[in-house]
Specification:
about 350 residues, mainly beta, eight-stranded mixed sheet, eight-stranded antiparallel sheet, 4 helices, about 50% strand
Length: about 350
């Protein structure tokens, strides 16, 4: 930079949007011809309201149907997962019960899908001792074909249901369906039915033009952008840069290069390399590579084994790359897009769990 000031009106090419989810339970389906998986979400906050939403993942095209209770205020853009959103329906559920306590889980939903098939799910478990949960990064982003952000679903309290609980009841159009299975499930004594509470969902660099505002709070120093921070529901998110991202024009012809990292509640989640170089007329081209996936620490033995045996849990973020431009001036602009790179880790997960 030419001086120690930050130019007025300079758009920041990094954004953080934080959303909240009270609780979630999901599983893959091993043998249903229509759906590959089901996820049940429950909201209970001032932004979204209170109620249940159910996601049905289609086998034919990977798209998602969302059924949600009346009164919930949900952003459809947050459900562009898999092959994209197919149906969005306000639904009167016949049953919509979802309780999670330190000693157990009790879930039951019943409704008709968009083609009139009856969907019924009843799952749960009970424990004598409080469940031992852990913070966990969901691999939701591994399934997105055309990402509109880098989605990081941080589950502050995650667990797998125990096999000694009641057998799951999953019925689709009157036909029993089976959930996917963990390798050596009998030995691990858990089912591949995932439950979490207190979820913090971070969207890094949502698609679109950020000419007028930055989502999140920029931390600016004399050398440029040191970090972007955001908070919601008691969760703190920090996107840091080393060295600081240049806040003015990039000097010379050589690109400026540095590292970035993202933390949620002080836990390192992902990181990588950023590059900025002039592309003419004062515009700066920016590339953000995700080169470091999630490196979990402090997981209970079972969860640590699962994340080692199934690589998608740790490595899926490294298949994301963002490319965009920053143009300062009287009408500043910051815009870009994400693309997927690398192997289809989600397919290896489906094959390993019998849900492909």
């Amino acid at each position: 930079m030419d001086d120690d000031s930050i130019p007025d009106g300079l758009p920041v090419p990094f954004s953080l949007h934080v959303d909240l989810l009270d609780r979630m339970l999901n599983f893959e389906l091993a043998d249903d011809p229509t759906y590959t998986g089901i996820e049940v979400q429950r909201f209970d906050d001032a932004v979204h309201g209170r109620g249940v939403a159910v996601l049905l993942m289609r086998r034919q095209d990977g798209r998602v149907d969302v059924h949600h209770e009346p009164g919930l205020r949900l952003d459809q853009a947050g459900y562009e997962i898999g092959g994209g959103l197919r149906e969005w329906r306000t639904t009167e559920f016949d049953v919509a019960r979802f309780e999670v306590t330190p000693r157990g889980v009790d879930l039951a939903v019943a409704f008709d899908d968009v083609e009139g098939r009856r969907i019924e799910v009843r799952v749960g478990d009970r424990t004598r001792r409080p469940r031992r949960t852990a913070a966990f990064l969901a691999p939701m982003g591994a399934e997105i074909a055309k990402p509109q952000s880098l989605p990081l679903v941080w589950m502050a309290s995650f667990d797998l249901l125990r096999r000694r609980g009641p057998k799951p009841v999953i019925s689709i159009d009157g036909r029993a369906a089976s959930p996917g299975r963990l390798p050596a499930e009998w030995l691990l004594r858990r089912r591949l039915i995932k439950v979490a509470t207190d979820l913090c969902i971070v969207y890094l660099n949502e698609a679109g033009d950020r000419s007028t505002a930055t989502v999140g709070d920029p931390v600016l120093g004399s050398d440029g952008l040191e970090a972007v921070t955001a908070s919601a529901g008691g969760h703190d998110v920090v996107l840091g840069f080393d060295p600081p991202f240049p806040a003015g024009s990039v000097r010379g012809e050589a690109p400026a290069i540095g590292h970035w990292h993202l933390e949620i509640d002080e836990a390192p989640v992902v990181g990588g390399i950023w590059q900025a170089e002039p592309v003419g007329d004062g515009t700066v081209g920016v590339t953000v590579e995700v080169t470091r996936g999630w490196e979990p620490t402090g997981l209970p033995g079972l969860m640590a084994v699962v994340t080692r045996v199934v690589p998608v849990f740790r490595r899926w973020p490294t298949t994301y790359r963002w490319m965009g431009t920053v143009t300062p001036g009287e009408e500043p602009r910051a815009e870009g897009r994400w693309e997927r790179t690398g192997a289809d880790l989600a397919q290896s997960y489906r094959s390993m769990t019998g849900s492909g």
